[in-house]
Amino acid sequence: MSVGTKIDVSELLGDLKFIKGSLPTTDVEASRVIVFEFWATWCPPCRQSIPHLSEVQAKYKSKDVFLVGVTNERNPKQIEQFVSQMGSQMDYVVALDPSNTAQEALMVPAGARGIPHAFILDPSGVVTWQGHPMESDFESALSKVAAKATSRVKFAPVTESVEELMGKSVKELKTILQDRGVYFADCVEKGDLAKRIVERCSKV
């Protein structure tokens, strides 16, 4: 996997078990940037990067950037205890990857062997950067994608039903989805587009 690869973020998030915090599923979803950072309690470099990641999260939260620390360790209580002890030093979302979904979607295809390792995903789920979160270009890459995401116009929720949307042209339906950053390449029929709008844009 390389930069430019698209990830099914909804499926990935659905398989994670959140230990601390969660991600919004309202109007922020269409403009949010997600940083998945793989770590473990037994990893000294990971522990060293945690305060830096908390600073980055605080700096960019107003720009709809959400950092998710992901570990595939198998002892939830141990992770909960670690996160609790870290307190405000680990001030971002933390999740377990019990089915290795995130590992298989990001780390394995990237050929990433060591941790910590981070992936920046834009609002469409496209990987825009990957590497060690302490690298100098991590924050500059994040700044660029965050600026691009927050420059989007905030659109009012779509209130029409599927039946009402079917009265619009295919081009109009695609524009509604595209403007809100909602993926629709897998929509084959016009009805698929209308359903996707109702599912994903009624709160956007």
From TrEMBL:
Ranges where the Thioredoxin domain occurs: 1-150
GO molecular function, one term: oxidoreductase activity
Gene3D superfamilies tied to this protein: Glutaredoxin, SAP domain
Top-level taxon: Eukaryota
SUPFAM superfamilies in the record: SAP domain (SSF68906), Thioredoxin-like (SSF52833)
InterPro entries, alphabetized: Redoxin, SAP_dom_sf, Thioredoxin-like_sf, Thioredoxin_domain, Thioredoxin_ResA/DsbE_sf
PANTHER family: CHROMOSOME UNDETERMINED SCAFFOLD_47, WHOLE GENOME SHOTGUN SEQUENCE, THIOL:DISULFIDE INTERCHANGE PROTEIN DSBE
Family stated for the protein in its record: Belongs to the peroxiredoxin family. Prx5 subfamily.
Name the record gives this protein: Thioredoxin-like protein
Organism field: Gonapodya prolifera (strain JEL478) (Monoblepharis prolifera)
Upper lineage: Eukaryota, Fungi, Fungi incertae sedis, Chytridiomycota, Chytridiomycota incertae sedis
